[in-house]
Specification:
The chain is an alpha+beta fold. The protein has 10 helices and 5 strands. The chain has 3 domains: 112 residues, Cytochrome c-like domain (Cytochrome Bc1 Complex, Chain D, domain 2, Orthogonal Bundle), CATH 1.10.760; 70 residues; 48 residues. Strand 3 and strand 4 form a beta hairpin.
């Protein structure tokens, strides 16, 4: 199955950035991929191996012809559950000359959908696996050494293992932010401009040019940043950010295992 002159329908597309750190959704809310019928997938695999694999690769990831896993037409077929009804014009174009019936198109569609599922993060394994391989005892020691000054297993983390599963616990460790249930306390800021009195309040926004804060007295103040302006931040999540530079894989899995025992 040669697809050297297939036109734009099978042009590869890039994947969009899958998250913003500040607004990453819970893994438990990952979209469910289109289901496939194992029998049809295998029939489609056999047909693909016979007619297509020599150019597109056995896994449809490309070879001398394009990667079909990233094909616009294939992704459209998968997303719309179209069962290959839009494939015939391409299968008869250029150097192709395949006349598949409705069932054969469905088989090919099922195999390609399966191939896309297996490639994407939201594929057949919609939930991460091997999340509970850590050592809870080692995690308890790590917690006492690095976390207990701010957190308590009888206070803010009481019944933590009931509230969150291993996936979400680990997600909160490696993506510390308020949206994922981190500290509800807001970042405080103190600004000193030259010899003027300090202005303190809740941080609204900060960038390379300005700092905006809401003083205790009320209102909102924006101050332009310069070498003469000193800005001091007090972020409740600072300790979590610092741990990101020190965590090992074992630390993360051990801590996850320990926090999951807090029932």
């Amino acid at each position: 199955m040669r697809m050297h002159r297939i036109g734009p329908l099978f042009a590869p597309i890039g994947l969009a950035a899958f998250f913003c750190i500040c607004e990453i959704p819970s893994i438990s809310q990952a979209p469910v991929p289109p289901k496939t019928d194992p029998a049809l997938v295998e029939q489609g695999r056999s047909r693909f191996a016979k007619d297509c694999a020599s150019c597109h690769g056995a896994d449809a990831r490309g070879g001398s012809a394009p990667d079909l896993v990233r094909s616009v037409l294939v992704l459209h077929d998968r997303g719309g559950k179209k069962e290959g009804v839009e494939f015939p014009p391409v299968l008869k174009s250029g150097s192709h000359n395949f006349d598949y019936d409705k069932n054969q198109l469905k088989e090919l569609s099922q195999f390609l959908t399966y191939s896309v599922n297996a490639t994407l993060r939201s594929g057949p394994n919609t939930r991460p696996t091997n999340m509970q391989g850590g050592n809870a005892s080692a995690g308890a020691v790590y917690f006492q050494q690095n976390c207990s000054s701010c957190h308590s297993v009888t206070g803010d983390l009481a019944s933590y293992g009931k509230r969150f599963d291993a996936v979400n616990i680990q997600q909160r460790l490696v993506f510390p932010n308020r949206i994922l249930g981190g500290s509800k306390k807001k970042t405080q800021v103190t600004v000193v401009k030259g010899n003027a009195a300090p202005i303190s309040g809740t941080l609204v926004r900060i960038d390379d040019f300005d700092v905006t804060l809401a003083p205790v007295a009320g209102g909102v103040v924006t101050i332009s940043r310069s070498p003469k302006v000193k800005v001091t931040l007090d972020d409740p999540l600072k300790g979590h950010y610092e741990l990101l530079n020190r965590y090992t894989d074992d630390d993360i899995h051990n801590l996850t295992a320990y926090l999951e025992t807090l029932k």
